[in-house]
Amino acid sequence: MATTGTEIILALDSDDLGEALRMVDMTRDRVRTYKVGSILFTRYGTDSVRRVKQAGGEVFLDLKFHDIPNTVRGAARAASGLGVRLFTVHAPGGVEMMRAAAEGAAEGAVGAGVERPLVVGVTVLTSIRGEGDTLDLVLRRAAAATEAGIDGVVCSAREVSAVKSEYGSGLVAVVPGIRLGGESGDDQARVATPGGAASAGADFLVIGRSVTRAADPAAVLEHIEEDIRNA
Ligand code: C5P
User: Fold this and answer.
1) Number of compact structural domains in the chain
2) Does 71 have pLDDT greater than 50?
3) Stated pTM of the model
4) Is residue 27 part of a domain?
5) Residue 64 is among the residues annotated as catalytic for this protein
6) What is the model's pLDDT at position 131?
7) Mutate to test the pocket of ligand 1, among 9, 13, 153 (most ligand atoms within 8 A of CB)
8) Distance 174 CA to ligand 1 centre (A)
9) Does the residue 30 lie in any domain?
10) DSSP 134-148
11) Distance of CA 111 from the midpoint of ligand 1 (Å)
């Protein structure tokens, strides 16, 4: 693992669980935690989480809960009961909703006898182009996340250092929109290299297609680790 402490989460955005599990097998030596998001979860349900865990990975459940507080509390309780390491809510859902998520996460963990997952709030999707006030919006949503007492935020590499200096290094920063030098950004707009995101202070990099579409995913991961180490 990198000296910066930045850890890679590999996004399994496949609509085929078998293919996703093969990716876990291929990369398990280099990756501790895998993202299960709406694609796998909608198709395979909680089985997707169980199977990734059985294959030796921990799970970042990225379902971006956004609803009234009572509903999100229940969803958070259920997510937590699955024994995931982190899960997401949408920060625009507000302080009360995020507080309910934190409470639900704690309740679910006690009920299932597992460790409480980290609850992270998605500030502004990294696919949204960063015009003028994006930083301001990210900071306001990070403020709400802090007030609600959740563990961290999802933001782009561009906003990490401002978020950390404003709300403290203890607020976990999860950063998607990672592209290796020279690669296309696909639908991502606020992108950075792994080293760039690591030196900005990211705790977790959520990386998908750069690795999963590569001919040799393990080799790309090795390259990413080196980029983080040299950050
Ligand atoms: O394939 P790529 O590296 O773009 O994957 C990035 C992952 O991070 C995707 O699974 C995407 O859903 C997720 N994500 C994101 N922006 C956020 C939150 C999550 O791109 N704000």
Assistant:
1) 1
2) yes
3) 0.95
4) yes
5) yes
6) 65
7) 13
8) 10
9) yes
10) HHHHHHHHHHHHHHH
11) 30
